């Protein structure tokens, strides 16, 4: 076995403990997808009320992202990590015990806060403990990310077939195991970066390049979360209402996203400028969303659009994060916190807006509106191209912790 392979596979137990917790944290992104119809049915909630599970989670995640770099630079990555884990455990369990959809919405907001704190510092923690340097740590982190995104809907479907409460209790239990493992196994605190001012992520938006990318990501995330959060309700009238079936559909979506984010996106950016990749793949996503609207009455057609969308979203997530890392001379953690805060606000708007549009106009309308939002993202990138001259260069000049914080914030 070659040396790079040994350095990736032979890691301290602390690294595997954090990587395990990363898998569970990323599972939270798609965990509730398969149980949305069951929650609406059992708690006698409308589809719009149920979609607020995404909105509260994403809204708080987005707001918290503006402050995670400030906090972790003062109390350290390990403490921030453990605080985030503890919050996820408490609020996931509380959501499982809830008796009303309003309670679940509120507890998902707390889960979003914990997730922002954990994900924004997880990779920095792995870098501080890993053998083989930053590159090995990033490979492990990206593998955990892909595994979590893929497994989340599958676990949600399996546990959700027993009860909609199952995925919440399952997440809380697994996170508790991860918390104990990190406390016991992670002995060495990663080196802290220079303290970051509280206002830094807000001031960062004054930079034209970052502002262009954040605005484009705002509208892109509308498309992302319409596909992820609205589609389960669109599939219900087509006979795909049970949690296990929906879990399998979005497991396919997660696998597709993981494969292209780790394998296809780097191959594309080695062959063409990052901005060109975005100009090509974003219109393809818009066409996929239009196709979802056209095939909204076909189970096979709509599932195919979900899987195809996952392939495109994996490329876009990775390339947009790389662009943010290179767009400015600001500290990468600050730029990523600012960008992530804005883009998650777009995601927070999309799910309830989609169900309202479906009720008012028709089931295809949310997909068509999402396609329009993605087109707006393309136009923003084209019109702001003069401010993105830096993003097509190689990602270089980063310390391990800077790169870790940037990727962590961007991927969460």
TrEMBL record:
Keywords: Membrane, Transmembrane, Transmembrane helix. It is found in: Cell membrane. CDD domains: MFS_YfmO_like (cd17474). Residues 14-389 form the Major facilitator superfamily (MFS) profile domain. It is a multi-pass membrane protein. The chain crosses the membrane at residues 12-32, 52-73, 80-97, 109-131, 138-162, 168-187, 208-233, 245-265, 277-295, 301-320, 341-361, 367-384. Its main location: membrane. It comes from the Bacteria. PROSITE patterns: MFS, PROKAR_LIPOPROTEIN. This is MFS transporter. The lineage of its organism: Bacteria, Bacillati, Actinomycetota, Actinomycetes, Micrococcales.
């Amino acid at each position: 076995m070659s040396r790079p392979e040994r350095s990736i596979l032979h890691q301290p137990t602390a690294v595997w403990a954090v990587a395990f917790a990363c898998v569970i944290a990323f599972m939270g992104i798609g965990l509730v997808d398969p149980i949305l119809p069951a929650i609406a049915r059992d708690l006698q909630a409308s589809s719009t009320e149920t979609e607020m599970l995404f909105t509260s989670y994403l809204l708080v995640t987005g707001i918290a992202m503006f402050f995670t770099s400030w906090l972790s630079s003062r109390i350290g990555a390990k403490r921030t990590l453990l605080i985030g884990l503890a919050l996820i455990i408490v609020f996931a369990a509380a959501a499982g015990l809830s008796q009303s959809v309003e309670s679940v919405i509120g507890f998902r907001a707390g889960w979003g806060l914990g997730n922002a704190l954990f994900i924004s510092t997880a990779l920095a923690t792995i870098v501080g403990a890993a053998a083989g340097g930053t590159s090995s740590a990033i490979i492990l982190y990206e593998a955990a990310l892909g595994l979590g995104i893929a497994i989340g809907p599958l676990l949600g479907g399996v546990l959700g077939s027993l009860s909609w409460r199952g995925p919440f209790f399952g997440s809380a239990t697994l996170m508790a195991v991860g918390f104990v493992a990190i406390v016991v196994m992670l002995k060495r605190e990663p080196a802290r970066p220079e303290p970051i001012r509280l206002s830094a992520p807000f001031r960062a938006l004054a930079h034209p390049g970052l502002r262009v990318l954040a605005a484009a990501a705002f509208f892109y995330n509308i498309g992302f979360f319409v596909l992820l959060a609205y589609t389960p309700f669109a599939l219900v009238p087509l006979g795909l209402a049970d949690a296990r079936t929906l879990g399998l559909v979005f497991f396919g979506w997660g696998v597709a996203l993981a494969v292209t984010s780790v394998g296809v996106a780097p191959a594309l950016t080695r062959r063409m400028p990052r901005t060109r990749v975005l100009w090509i793949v974003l219109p393809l996503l818009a066409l996929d969303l239009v196709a979802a609207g056209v095939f909204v009455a076909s189970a096979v057609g709509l599932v195919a659009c979900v899987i195809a969308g996952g392939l495109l979203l994996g490329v876009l997530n990775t390339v947009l994060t790389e662009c943010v890392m290179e767009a400015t001379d600001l500290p990468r953690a600050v730029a990523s916190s600012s960008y992530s805060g804005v883009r998650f606000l777009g995601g927070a708007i999309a799910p309830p807006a989609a169900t309202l549009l479906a009720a008012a106009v028709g089931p295809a309308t949310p997909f068509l509106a999402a396609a329009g939002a993605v087109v707006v993202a393309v136009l923003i990138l084209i019109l702001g191209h003069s401010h993105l001259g830096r993003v097509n260069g190689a990602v270089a000049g980063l310390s391990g912790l800077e790169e870790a914080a940037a990727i962590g914030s961007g991927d969460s």
